Amino acid sequence: MRNDDGALPLFSILVVDDDPTNLRLLQEILRREYKVYSAPSGGKALTFLERRVPDLVLLDVEMPGMNGYEFIGRLKGDGRWRAIPVLFLTAQEDRDKEELAFSLGAVDYILKPISAGIVLSRVKLHLELGAHRKYLEHLVEHKTLQLQRAQDAILDILANVTAFRDSDTGYHIQRTTLYSQLLIENLLELGHPDYPVDRNYADHVIKSAKLHDIGKVAVPDSILLKPAKLSMAEFQLIKLHTTYGARMIDDAIANLGDDSSFLHVAREIVMAHHEWWNGLGYPDRLSGMAIPISARVMAIADVYDSLRSHRPYKMPLTHEETLIIMKRETGSHFDPHLMEFSAKVFDSFEAVAAEYHDETRHNDGLPI
Description:
It is a single chain. Helices cover 54% and strands 7% of the residues. It is an alpha/beta fold and 368 residues long. It folds into two domains: 12-137, Response regulator (Rossmann fold, 3-Layer(aba) Sandwich), CATH 3.40.50.2300; 166-360, Hypothetical protein af1432 (Orthogonal Bundle), CATH 1.10.3210.10. A five-stranded parallel β-sheet has the order 2-1-3-4-5, sandwiched between helices. Helix 3 (68-76) links the parallel strand 3 (56-60) and strand 4 (86-90). Helix 6 (172-190) runs antiparallel to helix 7 (199-208) and helix 10 runs antiparallel to helix 11. It is elongated, with a radius of gyration of 30 Å.
């Protein structure tokens, strides 16, 4: 990246040494090619780092107060400074001390008395290596972002397959995904030991929620699109959407291998979002804590949306009516602890339902 005048910015170097002569010498050697800062002690160097982060540190080992080993320990223990390459300056060639320096995170060491040629070559080498590492990290981040965007686009396509087949479900996928996000983010913030949710798992739940009914693509149209309540036999067939969906995801997991971590969460949701806390759900009659957290979250989101939605065979319920029914089924259908933890986010469900109301769709099922 160039400055406003088109010139490449100078690398900055912090020299830490208690000997004024060494400081002046290193400044003289380096200042023609680099922006050089100096600190006569480890403490003053840490104060400097609070204001500015250099591209490289030249660090004397033997200093009064905080020596070089203590300083680099502080440096590498702070995420703001951990990536700064550190070159040790030492008057003693001691293998044990060299090993200690490298174990603490130093990338190189320079023996005193200082040689201008050696200093310049070592500094140039490690600055170039650092710049290359940053470039590779940026490239990886860029490629990862591209892959995530492609992945999200594919997930949207897959989720919309079900939506296009069943236009009566309207914005069901969008709403249930947002309800799931509210629920799982609340669990993440809560940090309850029996509900171990980290940022990664929460993101997987949010991303995968939209696939919860993907197995319905394998359900015959005569059942999926029936404008009336299903018979018992038809209901048994539509229940198979959980296992159909799980099989689809199993194939994807087999192909992706270690890159499929979010799909494992998607499989949990797809397979188990109709399981009941009391074990009377389907397809595996799981109960209690044996039901994955992701599926327990999805169960709440899915049932809330179903009760709030209009169907040819039923009228939609209000937010208050829906919560009365769901609270009545707490401990049988729903995880009672999760329902208790989630009480404060249910008000936000009503706002989501209002924003993604099905009357804001065209008759062909496409969002306006």
